[in-house]
Design brief:
Structural class: alpha+beta
Shape: globular
Number of helices: 11
Length: 453
């Protein structure tokens, strides 16, 4: 059974050792004359788990108020015992999960933007990544490596000097922004920003600091090395590739560099779309949203104006009792100059416009969930990549985009499509004319033969 959270109690009541000693005595096992000294506080098996849970709850609450940047009413609900809270998704780890783990690498003064906007020291252990402030782990920024589902390395737009965001998404959080009633007890994604330069002397700590120094030409090479060494293989870092997608709109701050993002609103929040190999990312406002290709049913467009248009992504979303549902997410005010790049170079190449291909993507997703590590056949991959058109040579997106033109063409072709060869004899006397012609030919032949005789 979990004991008192010694690290949290010392962090909260370090100036009041008398309170710590009183808590220790109150939670001491039967027969114990007194608890351990406050300066040697350590976990033990308690006599009253109810009291221990209460003390841990109080310590967690006070610590969150002292160190958290979010309003109290927005904080996640945690189990007071200090154990991880899981909702079938990414678990919320606590400082208790870190006990006994050695810090392999520490990178100091890193700018975290989500879940909290503040500079922290990021610490790596064999099982966790966590933020630390004043030597104490920061609640809500503790992640088990095994719980990370997606990771990204993306540029920060509209900055005079290049900056990059690292994004780690725990399991079940990629589409959490679509949920109307988001569950509590689920870890938020981690977003932290690094400059293009190299770390300053004294930035690195931990047992692997000397080795990490060999990869410290820049913050990017340092974090690529350290994250790749710990992240699950299926959560490898995803990056934007300007050779596959880039915006037609020139960046104001660095006009000579290609922009791999597209500015887009989600509701009233302005953000940026990144069209990646494995899905579409929208950031960097809360809630972040990553839509994997396997979760996209179809992509369409609306509110097409002279200078802007909106893009609607239909997403597979699990319903109650495992029912299949779809939910639409709309990204607005996208510059018209980016339409060809989005439509031709991404949507059509990925086959995202065709509902029939969506069934293939959905099947691939279900297969991956049921058979971890299995691969789709080459034909399936080809269809998922959207290299083939549908049976009539037209895609659903093209029909939607040129709806009016298609309607006119359909009207022109209506007579031809309704043509029935069985009704030739009733088609305004044409059959009679043909019969008369044949009869005349026969008469001529008969006359000619008779003349020869």
């Amino acid at each position: 059974m979990a004991g008192l959270n010694s690290q949290r109690l010392e962090a909260v009541f370090q100036s009041r050792p008398d309170i710590i000693q009183g808590i220790v005595k109150a939670a001491a096992p039967k027969g114990a004359s007194k608890g351990p000294r406050a300066d040697t506080l350590c976990p033990f098996t308690p006599d009253s788990p109810v009291r221990v849970r209460l003390f841990n709850e109080i310590a967690n609450h006070v610590y969150d108020q002292l160190n958290g940047s979010e309003p109290v009413n927005k904080k996640r609900k945690l189990d007071g015992s200090g154990a991880s809270v899981s909702n079938g998704n990414g678990a919320v780890s606590t400082a208790a999960d870190l006990e006994g783990e050695q810090i392999i690498l520490e990178i100091k003064d890193i700018s975290v933007t989500i879940p909290q906007r503040k500079k922290f020291d990021l610490c790596f252990t064999s099982k966790h990544l966590f933020a630390r402030s004043g030597g104490v782990p920061v609640q809500g920024i503790i992640y088990a490596w095994k719980d990370i589902e997606y990771s990204f390395y993306l540029p920060v737009p509209e900055k005079t000097q290049p900056q990059f965001n690292y994004i780690l998404m725990p399991k079940g959080t990629a589409l959490l922004g679509l949920a109307k009633n988001a569950p509590t007890g689920v870890a938020e994604p981690l977003v932290f920003t690094v400059p293009a330069g190299a770390p300053k002397p004294g930035t690195l700590g931990g047992s692997a600091a000397a080795t990490a120094g060999n990869f410290s030409d820049s913050f990017s090479t340092l974090f690529h090395w350290s994250l790749s060494a710990n992240l699950p293989h299926e959560a490898r870092l995803m990056s934007a590739n300007p050779d596959k997608f880039k915006s037609a709109v020139r960046q104001g701050q660095r006009p000579k560099e290609p922009a791999v993002h597209v500015k887009a609103f989600r509701g009233s929040k302005e953000g940026f779309l990144f069209f990646l190999d494995d899905g579409i990312m929208w950031g960097y406002k809360k809630p972040l949203l990553f839509i994997p290709l396997t979760s996209i049913a179809a992509v369409s467009y609306c509110n097409v104006l002279r200078t802007t248009f909106n893009m609607v992504v239909e997403v597979f979303a699990p319903g109650p009792a495992g029912e299949d549902n779809t939910e639409e997410v709309e990204f607005g005010m996208i510059d018209q100059a980016d339409y060809p790049g989005i439509d031709e170079k991404y949507v059509k190449r990925k086959g995202l416009q065709d509902q029939s291909l969506a069934e293939q993507r959905k099947a691939k997703k279900e297969l991956a969930e049921n058979e971890k590590g299995s691969k789709k056949s080459g034909d399936d991959e080809m269809v998922v990549d959207g290299e083939e058109a549908n049976a009539n040579g037209r895609t659903i997106l093209e029909q939607a985009q040129w709806e009016e033109e298609q309607r006119l063409q359909d009207e022109e072709d209506e007579d031809e499509e309704d043509y029935d060869p069985g009704n030739d004899g009733e088609s305004e006397g044409s059959g009679s004319d043909d019969d008369d012609d044949e009869d005349d030919d026969d008469d001529d032949d008969d006359d000619g033969q008779g003349g020869d005789d």
